[in-house]
Write a structure and sequence with these properties.
The chain has 78 residues and is mainly alpha-helical. The chain has a domain at 11-54. It has helices spanning 2-6, 13-52, 62-65. The longest helix is centred in the middle third of the chain and has 40 residues, at 13-52.
């Protein structure tokens, strides 16, 4: 029982706060990177949708003859 009491240690407050801030900075940086990558991908998909909405180029193109759905005010497109 005395062995447990003799082997205690303490962590300095500055070290604990520094570790916490380092981890928070790391997580925030990774979040910004992931967000940036996803936004680039969304922009690329928007360009693809705009390109594909013009149709396939044939005279009898199904997509050119199909009208786009009317969106209400609550619905948005990405």
């Amino acid at each position: 029982m005395n062995y447990i009491a003799e082997t205690t240690f303490s962590i300095p407050v500055g070290w604990a706060l520094g570790s916490f801030m380092g981890m928070a900075t790391l997580v925030g940086g990774l979040g910004r990177i992931i967000y940036g990558i996803l936004m680039l991908r969304i922009q690329a998909l928007e360009k693809d949708v705009a390109r594909l909405s013009r149709g396939c180029g044939m005279v009898n193109c199904h997509w050119r003859m199909t009208s786009a759905p009317n969106l209400t005010q609550t619905e948005t497109t990405i």
